[in-house]
């Protein structure tokens, strides 16, 4: 009887360690410069954010954007319904980082679990973008204004990519940052509102 109880306790312990190990790897990465929607939720600047306030690093969805990946209207949440608050345009009232057309800007990622990486890509909304509506592919330029290839390398825990914003934008716009993972079918998504 004692051997059976000991075996059961060991079995439960192994399962527990496995669950904890898997759970610890669920965090991955987010942009904090320019400040992303998930950071505004996590630091309490924006309220009523649901689960994203505790998991700003977990906006993971299918890779292959823009040909594949999250459906229109779910892009900022990476197609993940748990984080749908990120897709709510909040009547265009998300806080925005002030920028200047044509300026050089650093785009910084905080990576809580590092992965072999294909690339980081940065897209900007087109002139005429309406910040009061959920983001769609038609709102974004079809090509990123900045692509940083990684060729399968694993990035540092904090990475910054310097890029130049397009010179022909005014008003409130949105930067979509996409971190494409090399050895899984997923990517990480982050939306940052900017004010030109």
UniProtKB/TrEMBL annotation:
<feature type="domain" description="Chitin-binding type-4">
    <location>
        <begin position="28"/>
        <end position="194"/>
    </location>
</feature>
<dbReference type="InterPro" id="IPR014756">
    <property type="entry name" value="Ig_E-set"/>
</dbReference>
<dbReference type="InterPro" id="IPR004302">
    <property type="entry name" value="Cellulose/chitin-bd_N"/>
</dbReference>
<keyword id="KW-0732">Signal</keyword>
<protein>
    <submittedName>
        <fullName>Chitin-binding protein</fullName>
    </submittedName>
</protein>
<dbReference type="Pfam" id="PF03067">
    <property type="entry name" value="LPMO_10"/>
</dbReference>
<dbReference type="InterPro" id="IPR051024">
    <property type="entry name" value="GlcNAc_Chitin_IntDeg"/>
</dbReference>
């Amino acid at each position: 009887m004692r051997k059976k109880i000991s075996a059961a306790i060991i079995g439960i312990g192994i399962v527990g360690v496995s669950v904890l190990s898997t759970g610890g790897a669920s965090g991955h990465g987010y942009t904090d410069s320019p400040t992303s929607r998930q950071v505004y939720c996590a630091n309490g600047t924006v309220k009523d954010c649901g689960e994203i306030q505790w998991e700003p690093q977990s906006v993971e969805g299918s890779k292959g954007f823009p040909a594949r990946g999250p459906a229109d209207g779910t892009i900022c949440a990476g197609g993940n319904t748990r984080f749908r608050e990120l897709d709510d345009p909040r009547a265009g009232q998300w806080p925005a980082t002030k920028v200047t057309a044509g300026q050089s800007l650093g785009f910084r990622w905080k990576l809580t679990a590092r992965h072999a990486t294909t690339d980081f890509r940065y897209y900007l909304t087109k002139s005429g973008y309406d910040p009061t509506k959920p983001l769609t592919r038609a709102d974004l330029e079809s090509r990123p204004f900045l692509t940083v290839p990684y060729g399968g390398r694993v990035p540092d825990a904090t990475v910054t990519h310097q890029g130049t914003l397009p010179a022909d934008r005014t008003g409130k716009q949105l930067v979509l940052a996409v971190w494409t993972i090399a050895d899984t079918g997923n990517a990480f998504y982050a939306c940052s509102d900017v004010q030109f």
